[in-house]
Amino acid sequence: MAIIVRGGRVFIGFLRIIDQFGKISYPIYISVGNVVLHNAVERIHVAKKFCDVPQGILLIRGENITIIGELNPEINIDEKLERVSEEEIYKLQQEQTASRKELAKKRAELFAIRGLGFPDFLDIIDDT
Q1: Any one cellular component term from GO for this entry (predicted)?
Q2: Which of 15, 80, 108, 112 can bridge 1 by disulfide, Cβ–Cβ 3.0-4.6 Å?
């Protein structure tokens, strides 16, 4: 079973328990109950590299689930992506986050020059 939660984290594991209290209000809101995964891993992707970080038994609240589905066992992810160590994937993830923050900062500056967007929150607080 593969589950993507709010924030974009991906968890993979064997489905053991699912609550049946979920709400279905067609067509706007569908909610699955809480889910328990056994032998769960968090799959972290950065570009064409990935790593499975062991999580063990994992309880995921239904309100945090954005996508849930079965994995096709015939598809081998190692053919398309390169498996790397946890240390390497965390380093790559930090680099990717830093570059995205820098890009967002440049974009905000360009918008500010053109009179679009909002000022930085820290600029409002800092009155020195």
Answers
A1: P-body
A2: 15
